[in-house]
Amino acid sequence: EGFRDPAALNYRRYIALQHDREIYAEGVVDHYEALAADDTLEPGWIETLARIYAPARYLFHVLQITSLYLGQLAPSAYITNAAFFQAADELRALQWIAYRVKSLSGSHDIQLANSEATRRIWETDEAWQPAREVLERLLVAYDWGEAFTALNLVVKPVLDALFKEAFAELATDHGDGLTAALLSESRVDTTRNQAWHAALARYALGANSTNRAVIDAWIDVWRPRADRAVEGLAAALSDPDGVRERTAGSLAAFTARWSG
């Protein structure tokens, strides 16, 4: 009960904040669509979007569900609120992916917006299977402390870094400014959420020093799974070494904020 979300969000403040953010995102979309920028994208990049970007909405949906689980079982209303706002952020992220894929299907392959085709990639493409495994294991991590640690201290920071940092940079390199802008805009939510993740982890360590061994033990289980997810997805991208380096660096910087 002593924990407080650094952002001090309530429902009204969250709605007002995200309303303004959606107006900004819609403006970005209007700008790029007015330029007909999608018409100039290379076929190879479109294939990457179909294989890696489009199925990412399943990824963010799992992060959403797990965030809701954390909020439902949280030992304090202050944690519940932060987790539920995080779940709303994940919904926002996956909705923009769905919109982006639909808009791309109009100027490129219509299969980009085919849910059955995207689901087949999610379920069978070798690049996705390590990520799918860690995410599906996350759905059955029923212990609240383990679920918080796995989601917010390992899996989410790694996958957010992969898509909202590394993949966004690749999009820029391939002339896809709109995808890059939407992912980078979504990273604002990640930054806000990581503030409460780090604050809660520091609170737990400060309240009981034996919590460190418990948290470290969970991280030892989940970190290799998350690393395999990054490896699988990075291998399918044009700069796998850069993706691995950016993702590892982002996780290390975040971990330093709470681990002491």
Number of strands: 0
Find the CATH topology. Ribonucleotide Reductase, subunit A
| Major sheet description | none
Radius of gyration: 18 Å
- Give the number of helices: 10
Structurally, how many domains make up the residues? 1
What's the quick description here?
With 260 residues, the protein is mainly α.
How are the elements arranged and paired?
Elements: H1 11-34, H2 43-53, H3 56-73, H4 77-107, H5 115-124, H6 129-138, H7 144-173, H8 177-207, H9 211-234, H10 240-259
Helix pairs in contact: 1-8, 3-4, 3-6, 3-7, 4-8, 6-9, 7-8, 7-9, 7-10, 8-10, 9-10
Overview of the structural elements:
With 260 residues, this protein is an all-alpha fold. It has one domain: Ribonucleotide Reductase, subunit A. The radius of gyration is 18 Å and the shape is globular.
List keywords for this structure.
Ribonucleotide Reductase, subunit A, Phenol_Hydrox, monooxygenase, 80% helix, EC 1.14.13.227, mainly alpha
